[in-house]
Amino acid sequence: MRILLVEDEVSLSNAIKTILERSGYVTDAVYDGLSAVEYAQSADYDLIILDVMLPLADGFEVLRTLRRAKMDTPVMMLTAKSTIADKVTGLNEGADDYMTKPFHPEELLARVGALTRRKGNIVLRKLTFGDLTLDLGSAVLACNNETVQLSKKKFEVLKVLLYNPTMTITTENLINKVWGVDSSATDNNVEVYISFIRKKLKYLGSTVGIRKIHCLGYRLEEFRC
Ligand code: CA
What we know:
There is one protein chain. The chain is α/β, with parallel strands linked by helices. The chain folds into two domains: about 1-120, Rossmann fold, CATH 3.40.50.2300; about 125-220, Winged helix-like DNA-binding domain superfamily/Winged helix DNA-binding domain (Arc Repressor Mutant, subunit A, Orthogonal Bundle), CATH 1.10.10. Helix content is about 40%, strand content about 25%. The chain has a five-stranded parallel β-sheet, sandwiched between helices. It has a four-stranded antiparallel β-sheet with strand order 6-7-8-9, covered by helices on one side. Strand 8 (about 140-145) and strand 9 form a beta hairpin. The longest helix has 18 residues, at about 185-205. It is elongated and about 60 Å long. The model has no long low-confidence stretch (mean pLDDT about 90). It binds calcium ion. Calcium ion binds near residues 8, 9 and 54.
């Protein structure tokens, strides 16, 4: 079960992400409206939790764009705006539920449970791309008959790349997701971990590699022999 969380308030986003992940939902957090559209269209989410007041494009705009693109992923609007007019706007634009801040974690989980059950209650346990399989529970990376145990950071970095295997993931995005938005990690830290992972891929004899896209970030690539 995979959720896209769109909330620009970092501390709230982190809190929601923790609540969801503790309950077994894999959660990708983005912090502005444009990234929300980009992520929503690049991966198959079971639910999108969408704040209304967002930088670059507000939640209503994001929702409109997604519904116009015929995307029927359930959307729960999450916002401080609690007026009836806002709720009506959200629901008219195609939102499936509407929750106002502040909220209780149990209420959030109950609503998330109700919305995601519509698509079946399968918790994502493995990510695959090419000949690679990453077990999200044990952090074991497998390729053909070989396996390696990944350390926490290597696991986290590879996980981000594998969630969006056809997308270039920006270095900034990797830092935010793996080290945290408040960290002092730099491009060099990312580079170091990418090179560790490349060594693991080489050891496994995988046909998958990590390509560096100059000035932008990284992307997985399958090399055919
Ligand atoms: Ca906001």
